[in-house]
């Protein structure tokens, strides 16, 4: 490989190490990845899952303004949205922007 190509590859590896942090390779030797969401305890995890399911049920039933007779607890939409926001891979999008700038928008940067 040419010197510039080696420099570019090294730079890409550094960017990948810095930004690609949401997905981790699974330990079961499959080609799958794992995204980890951190919770304080099992109860918090259970609350998030329960709220996501409630929100989906209410949305599917098109009765988001009503709570069923068997479920007196309101959906904590804020908690659900917080969890979704935590899952959103901003670091990966920043990485893709760097790659885009380096390889697509300014092709002259490849050999510099």
Low-confidence stretches: none
Give the number of DSSP strands. Answer: 2
Radius of gyration: 21 Å
Classify the secondary structure makeup into a structural class. Answer: mainly alpha
Query: Order of strands across the biggest sheet?
Result: 1-2
Q: Beta-strand percentage? A: 5-15%
SSE run: HEEHHH
Form type: elongated
> How many angstroms separate the termini?
15 Å
* Arithmetic mean of pLDDT: 76
| Count of runs of 4 or more consecutive helical residues | 4
How many domains, in number, for the residues? 1
Largest sheet: 2 strands, antiparallel
Which bin fits the share of residues in helices?
Answer: 55-70%
Could you explain how this protein is built, in words?
It is a single chain. This protein is mainly alpha-helical and 112 residues long. It has one domain. The chain has four helices and two strands, in the order αββααα. It has a two-stranded antiparallel ribbon with strand order 1-2. α1 packs antiparallel against α4 and α2 crosses α3. The model has no long low-confidence stretch (mean pLDDT 76).
In brief:
With 112 residues, the chain is mostly helical. The protein is 56% helix and 5% strand. The longest helix has 19 residues, at 42-60.
